[in-house]
Amino acid sequence: MIRGIGVDIVDLARFTRQVERTPGLIPRLFAEGERGLPMHSLAARFAAKEALIKALGDSAGATWQEMEIVSDAQGKPGFVLHGSLESLMQARGITSLHVTMTHDAGVACAFVVAEGA
Q1: What residues does each domain of the chain span?
Q2: How far is it, in rounded angstroms, from Cα 2 to Cα 27?
Q3: Given pLDDT bands bounded at 50, 70 and 90, which one contains residue 107?
Q4: How does 40-50 read in b/e, with b if 16+ C-beta sit within 10 Å?
Q5: CATH number at 2-116
């Protein structure tokens, strides 16, 4: 059963300007394993994190680094959640998350579906 759906879109040029103006955004928004990625990939991951918050209803005090996005051997993205997000998902009956991300024509977009029993 679907427990939540979230979508977000990020303007790549605006995101790049923000990061260039405020270099501290990268360590604040991304887990260590995400930080070396190209700007368009970071923007897509930021959109995915925003979409996750929307799918959950809120982030209940979780930090951005607790929402890590990794890819499996075939390149399929997925979330690795840390800290309070794991317990938040359990409390809301969410057992799995599905995420897709894309970037093209100056924007990055992500879509998240939260599933549960």
Answers
A1: 2-116
A2: 32
A3: very high
A4: bbbbbbbbbbb
A5: 3.90.470.20
50 marked as binding residue: yes
pLDDT higher than threshold 90 for residue 63? no
Mean pLDDT value of segment 15-32: 95
Alpha-carbon span 116 to 102, nearest angstrom: 25
Q: What is the pTM of this model?
A: 0.93
CA 9 – CA 109 distance, rounded (Å) = 4
Q: Report whether 32 belongs to an annotated binding site.
A: no
Task: Report the distance separating Cα 104 and Cα 41, nearest Å.
Answer: 11
**SS3 readout for the chain:** CEEEEEEEEEEHHHHHHHHHHCCCHHHHHCCHHHCCCCHHHHHHHHHHHHHHHHHHCCCCCCCHHHEEEEECCCCCEEEEECCHHHHHHHHCCEEEEEEEEEEECCEEEEEEEEEEC
Asked if 1 and 117 touch (Cβ cutoff 8 Å), the reply is yes
